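Hi all, long-time lurker, first post. I run a small reading group and we've been trying to get comfortable going from sequence to structure in the token notation. Rather than ask abstract questions, I figured I'd post a concrete chain and ask someone more experienced to write out its structure so we can walk through it together at our next meeting. Sequence below, copied exactly:
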Amino acid sequence: MFIESAPDVHAFTPAKNFTVGIPKCLSYYSLRPFYAWFFHTLGIKVVLPRTISDVGSARVESNYCYPAEIAHGTIQDLVDQKVDYIFIPHFKDIQSYEKNVQCNTCPVTQILPYYIKKAFTEITEEKLLAPIINFMNGNTSTRKEMIQIGKKLGIKQKVSRHAFEIALKKQKEYAAKA
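-- Answer (accepted) --
Happy to help. Here is the structure in token form:
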């Protein structure tokens, strides 16, 4: 997934002079091709965490599961790297690969952007990219959310729509291999 389904970093052409950090946690592993290709196609450099910061993990404000602690730790690393934006989607659900089976994510995964805002007050509303990812009933609502992310980043709607379609295609290609 990280090599075969990822965009070629050597083929990256920057269109903007800022970075978007994506924590390596929760939905990142399910939708890595989608997230990576969306920002790559927009010409926005993605920064990934280098480590799981113990300082960040300690910022958990309640007894969450271990994956939530990892999320806090990777987000702290992105804050420490001084990324310009942090992409933390509200990952609601995804189409199931099985017929007539609903595929929702756990509540902790769904509310990640909301509890991160409480634990990391230095991540302002302007720096937080938190679209609602909802593929259960097709792509319309997620397309709209990702186009809004593009708008927030100063990207034209047509360009964001194109990036969404490329990202969705690459995600489907990855799912077909899995």
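A couple of things your group might point at:
The chain has one domain: 14-177.
The CA atoms of residues 117 and 123 lie 7 Å apart.
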